[in-house]
């Protein structure tokens, strides 16, 4: 018995000794990623600030699930993913700061989980550097705490590509398969068309190499995320083809259109560049954009020499297909459109930067590290400056909507009510009114419908100062609010 008990103790001790180093390595590898996610969360709350009011697109998404405001018109390109994401808070609280804090915390946690999906594919320092590069972009910080889909497509892309590569390289656990499906579902849940562009290289690679299980799991994840969008297409838009056609029309018609220069102009802090006119940002702001393809090429060279080409080539291919439609198929730009591409580029680029710091010979190494650090410091300073300008402009524009809403209340336009015309969706939300449009991309009511509503509710039409009102509002009393001409229908 003594020998048997002693043998049990010896085996237990061996298991503890064997588990100890692995536990330590796991902790060391994940703790820096957790710290990065925490810093990213705090940076959002400090730099973007929770008091920032809701923007136009946010209003559309949030109003679908809140009981405190009428739902805004939901056009064909949009998906319900963001609305469901914010529902745990927006469905019961009108507090914008609470929503911002919730989204900041959620985005930080999502970044941590997305980077963890790449464990074992690259050293921890590369994952930390790639995560920091992506998290420090002004559009990542700006949109992290906002109710917008593109950041979440980027997170889904990171998870999908990381889990896919781990399965092809290691035949990893069933948990990795679930991660692959979840990443595909998250992308499609947020923006089905973006999900397809990101996933094309993965689907092709799985098909060519006959990885049938990976192909099935990824396709199932994409389908699961896209099902609500497809069902809604048949219920509300006349079918899938009709919805895709309407989405293309609303976006100006998808086709061969070079938007590279538009994307460059938007890097200066413009949330939407449509039409995209004006001067280019300074070279200090756009420098990083031109270095991305150079560093991506260097990352391929480094990976080829290290005989791990696939784990670098695949994310670069997915980043390319994710960026193509927004660079060459639409006639306008927004910096958030390329967030999935930036997220996928970040890890290979970080690998290339670490090679520049540590790879060259001893004579170059003392110079390389300070030079790379100096360039990254300048890049970070430029990103923070652009972020500050973007936050200031958006804060003021959203406060202006609030001031217009206050003026409308003084004119007797109070909920329940209806606003039509210029910026009716955002101003209607701040006023507590429904919004209507008799033409254009957000058409959801007829002129006769507006007049019938005016017989029982307060109705007002908004137009830029000096603009021509529609026929149904020409006889309504006019008022000037800031730079708007407001015509209020006679009381019911």
UniProtKB/TrEMBL annotation:
The lineage of its organism: Bacteria, Bacillati, Actinomycetota, Actinomycetes, Kitasatosporales. The keyword Translocase does not apply. Signal peptide: none annotated. This is Integral membrane protein. The chain crosses the membrane at residues 33-52, 98-115, 127-145, 151-169, 212-231, 287-306, 313-334. Keywords: Membrane, Transmembrane, Transmembrane helix. The keyword Transferase does not apply.
